Amino acid sequence: MLDLTPSRRDLLLGAGGLFISLAIKAPAQAANSAPLVAPAAAKPLAIDQVASFLAIDPQSHVTLFTGKVDLGTGLMTAMLQIVAEELDVAPASVTIISGDTALTPDQGTSSGSNGIQIGGMQIRRAAATAKHALLDMAAAKLGVDVASLTVENGVVTGGGKSVSYGTLVTGQSIAIPVSPDVPSKDPSKFKLVGKSMRRLDIPDKVTGRFTYMQDVKVDGMLHGRVVRPPAMGANLISVNEASVSSIPGFVKLVRDGNFLGVVCKTEWSAIKASRALEAKWSDWAGLPEQSKLYEHVRATKIDKTEVTSNSGDVPTGFAAATKKLSATYDFAIHTHGSIGPSCAIVAIENGKVTCWSASQATHSMRKQLAAMLGLADDDVRCLYVDGSGCYGRNGHEDAAADAALMSRAVEGRPVRVQWMRHDEHGWDPKGPPTLMDLSAGIDDKGNVTAWESAVFNANGTIGFAPLVGAQLSDRPHQTGMAPGGVNGDSAVPYGFTNVHTIANRLNATPFRPSWIRTPGRMQNTFANESFLDEVAAAAKADPIAFRLQYLTDKRGIELLERVRTLAKWEARPSPDRNQQGDIVYGRGVSYVKYELNRTYIAAVAEVEVNRKTGQIKAQRFFVAHDCGQIINPDGLRNQIEGNVVQTVSRALMEELKFDRSTVTSLDWATYPVITFPDVPKVVMDLVDRPNEKPWGAGEPSAAVVPSALSNAVFDATGVRMRSVPMTPAKFLAALKAT
Amino acid sequence: MSTITLKINGAQKSVTIEDPDMPLLYVLRDEFSLHGPRFGCGLGQCGACTVHIDGHAVRSCITPAFSVNGANITTLEGLGTPEKAHPVQAAFIEEQAVQCGYCINGMIMQSAAFLATNPHPTEEQIRAELANNLCRCGTHVRIVAAVQRAAASI
Ligand code: FES
Ligand code: FES
To answer: What are the structural domains of chain A?
Structure first.
């Protein structure tokens, strides 16, 4: 729970200016928590120092400093469990400070399902090291052997005597590096990890006491709104300031190249002014025709071709085939569509920038803001405040850049910028369009003799999506594309003899791309697992049995078997041709080993299809999930449910609409998302492996959803859906062609 | 410019409205620092801004403040507190029916008004009632469970 209300705002003076402590449970005590940590201003931030992550005060209160942030996934509750478990302290005695570039180590972007897998494990390591040091100190103090000590609630006991962590650390300053090999707690002794823990933020979130980024108020704050070019690449020709200057509360028109914004005293006057502002823009029509999007993708210049897997000899495999199948799959452009539009506040004082935002990557954003403003990184401090759910790099960073440009224009006074709905739908970075060609050969026994695929995806990886404000104002910004790790799961988890898979990395994509939940891995898995289903059908094999035939990985096999039981799967080939009438039912399976090196998921979708209207309804999802050691089972369930529901929405109905100049799906009517009547039931089987590493769960279960749906539709109707979204119109067209 | 009076969460308030178009949402959030009602779309499409006006669930983002002069307004804060939660709020806690929670104000306000007049809805009726409340995190499954739990507890 974050609290920035004035009564509970801890204002600490430090080198960076204003320190606002973000508190879970108790108000943060960063100012007076000395021992394991130096005073705030000199607090280490290096990833290899215990004191970068942990502070313990004389009252044994623990503060965890983490560069990872909670995007609505419950990550901070899981972090709390990890730390309290490792240190043997009560969860209530831990405060978390997250995503503050002046106080927290840079643990990388909170993305890629790495929050626990990487971030949480860095923290577990730091806590294990701290615990080890504390036990050594206790042994010395109590005059007993370390092995005889026990710890409960931060009190170490041995030889009939006790001492608290707080007492041990009082007057001490301990600078120790994080040890790579101090043993962490034996999972058989876990009391918190692996048990469902209620999220700390929920009581405040359901009663209006929670402070979201959108609720933050800073003294003297003004309100900004952006006015974007009506055509995305248009140039600003002229602005008529008189069109807004008489609006009560109007403060400033901000024009910086093609960046345009208004600053006003109140939020409503800023909105009014942004609507009333008269500006002349040049024409621009540089977007491809939407109806020819995939021709455009295929015709885009290929920067490089990467081989994502290669084994055996594919031509030989095809030569041995009695049947060759080929298909092309495509996946639409998606918007993040957070329910709360992006919002940020920036203040500039004496050349020092303070930025509050809900960025998933405050440390990276700081570099981007500094570059844009021509400042040193150290002159910029970014603080994370929970926002509306974030599923990748959406508009938070851009809103921060907007606020920075506007604050700069009003002598550094704090400016709060919140995007309007049309700004968010129009200008958040998009999940780029993806095209996938696949071919496979089978012999007369139905064995796969060759597997070949080529994905056409935007070049680049995860990194920096350029800031819109910096682009429009032509201030320094990144020029490359950052679609995320989109090659993931281009290769398949099956042991086919002859495999060759490639990624054609495209030189451009129509809209500024970024990673949206399960980037690339969703698109690739959609194509792979649906096409595999086509191959299984051609081989007249049961889709689960067919997959099992090519799996040697025990955990993967177990998961497919589990989902088979969970869904009461009936072994038979697809489609089920015994159905009469307009309304038919089907089931489809999908399996993936995420990025081929972590979390396993197997899912079965059950759908209802109306052959007359083309309407596809997801009725139920069964998910078997193995992410190794589970930290918070209920948190994991919540995340998986969210992944399934959100991805059903993406797979069945979501598609960015645009004309040659700009995005035209600027609200929820033109970019519909799933609503309650269409939400499937989700049934889960979670495999907990306490002795294994914890792997990510933020994205993997989303990867299998579109293919499970496509396979279920095929099972119900014999119609193969190869294009996301699987709209009624596409179904009817495919039905006609079948 | 004119002054209106509103009863907000039981307290009588008056506020000067400069612009007759200004939606109630901005009065609640900006004048009175309430965090329950939230800006999501400003278009009446998502439900994030929902409040109760005289007991009815209303989208405050498209309701001019001026038009509700004298009304009795309840926000999420007025429904209950962590210490003394309304049954619907308590049910959302029990079911842990929150991911980011940005939409949850709307979900709770819509459900609370609904249950007040339909205390024993079917699951289908709950889904239909919430059809105009959007959630991007996909928390729907738990939200329905929470409303069912609340219905059973009222
Ligand atoms: S903000 Fe009012 S309905 Fe979306
Ligand atoms: S919980 Fe995030 S939008 Fe509903």
So the answer is: 8-207 (3.30.365.10), 214-283+336-427 (3.30.365.10), 434-737 (3.30.365.10)
